Fold this sequence. Notes:
Helices cover 31% and strands 22% of the residues. The chain is built from eight helices and 17 strands.
Amino acid sequence: MCYMTRDFNSKTRSLRGFIAHIEESVHFVAGEGGGKFPASNSFLLTGSENVLIDAGIGLERLAEVDRIHRIDVLVITHSHPDHIRHGYYLADRHLLMPRETPESVSDLVMLGERFMGSRQAGCEWAKFVSEEFGVRALRLPDQRFKAGDVLEIGGARLEAIHAPGHLNDHYCFLEHNSGTLITTDIDLTSFGPWCGNPESDLELFKDSILRIMSLDRRRLCSSHKAPITGAGHEWFEKFLEAFERQKKLILDLCVAPATLDELALRSPFYRNTLKYKNVQFLFERQMISKHLSVLCKEGLVAEKNGYYYRVEGKAF
């Protein structure tokens, strides 16, 4: 049964269980586990050549898609592990990546260093994603795309939209023939925006969302949620509200003075669910730090001798 919610058009036709035709040449390919991390959804474009957007659906599903449709081109939206995860399976196909993706994508330890901030933490991250999720590094691409490029591939007209904040090389796509807006990791899920890497930026993320939601579209497709028929403006609004929810979560932790490390150990975002606690700690630390910076600028939190505390008399 195709992973769908009532937001997905009931006329959508299931092709192979987890593959569903959307419109024109565009198909939704549900990632294993409902598209939740460490998986992600993919998008299949069929025509004179078959194109797969992202490679995180799970190895068995990827092999099945390739068996049915024989993928000619793999497009990577950004270099997070749940999107490059099993790209090695299609190593002999034409590979497209964003212009902003650094060459560290071809070395897991270097990629981990980029995402975690140090060589030691990068080694642990590489061990974590390879052992737990089967992630391998990608080879360098055959071709790169940039903001504003319109890729006429797989029977589609795919406009590349640079949407940093989540990650510097993060892209969304607007498929013009079907009016399908692929929002990637502006994922519209209840977790809210993920900003757990050193290069993640809350304000850039918000700006990207506002740009994306201004585009004309007939449906939304994200990397971690089933497709949504219609403009889905309310989903963007809910996702934007999550920035404030996350900020309030960190503010409430500062009722008693605490260091950044102490706050990270409380694991407000992951709730101690990740197996590799050092990786979890660094993700938590990055996200908390970014929200603390905003709270301090707004005068809601102050810092003294490395301790953060809520400023009395300041309303959220």
